[in-house]
Amino acid sequence: MDFGQFLVQLLTDAGGSLVSAVTAAFVLAAIGLNLHFGYTGLINIGQAGFMLLGAYGFAITVEYSGDFWLGLLVAIVVAIIAALILGLPTLRLRGDYFSIVTIAFAEIIRMIGDSPALQSLTGGPVGIQGFKFQGPFVALSPLPHEGTLSLGPLTAPYTGGDSWWLRIVSWGAVVIIALIALLLVKSPWGRVLRGIREDEDAVRSLGKNVNLVKMQSLIIGAVFGALGGVFYVLSGSVQADGLGRSQTFLIYTCLLLGGAATVFGPILGSLLYFVFTTILTDVVTTYVPHTVMNVTQIPQFVWILVGVGLMLLVIFRPQGILGNKRELNFIG
Known about the structure:
By secondary structure, the protein is mainly alpha-helical. It contains 13 helices and two strands; from the N terminus they run H-H-H-H-H-H-H-E-E-H-H-H-H-H-H. Helix 1 (3-19) packs antiparallel against helix 12 (265-287).
């Protein structure tokens, strides 16, 4: 492949990452995590657990009921119930203690989903294949159900898989959720969140119910994460190991890159992350000889570079691209 062909392929792949439903799913999860971490100061290391709960709640419901909207409702309800179960006994914990509980919560969800004992429901290690729950969503599409559409260098099916229909709906959901997040953090409730993040004892002394507000933040962010989980699996399948610990740290990378405690930081950070990893993967695949690094080693190498990049980001620019360093004094 000459350089011109490589450049075209690179731009095509990067553009595909920009509009992918997977990217939109992580934007939604990052917005939810931003509400927890950036605005409330809750160090939640289990956001992928809420994504997985949303994915399972949606997929299992649609598989047995055939109703997309019921599946979406169940995903939201399951996230609310899980946030209540997690938050009621733990929101009095601070800092590291709460983060330990949340990562344990996410691991419990992953292990339950992976358990062979529940294989008839969750699919166990195999998971739930997409054809079992994607049909009702595909049926809602006003676009043709067959054929592909090319927009510039990007070509995708009209409907089915990572289609234009899924991309339109998932990014439409991003716009709606981002607007909701903007209205929330600009409201008096959002100012209370910032007060809790900076000094919850001072907020409590003003007569505010700190635990109630923290619970509200946890629930709303969990629902955003669950919606991200729904869109994440609509182009693939539900597999517990696909939404494990590494995905939570990926969400943190997106959030910190764009800027925590900013409305548009999670969006910018997610877009940059997926474009960067796509470009890096293409460059390594094309120019590093397979005798040096084989196909299975390339994703591991990219993850190593992402980890190093995250460490450098936290050290030299913890506020990210759009953030304000003073907003993150609570973790210093």
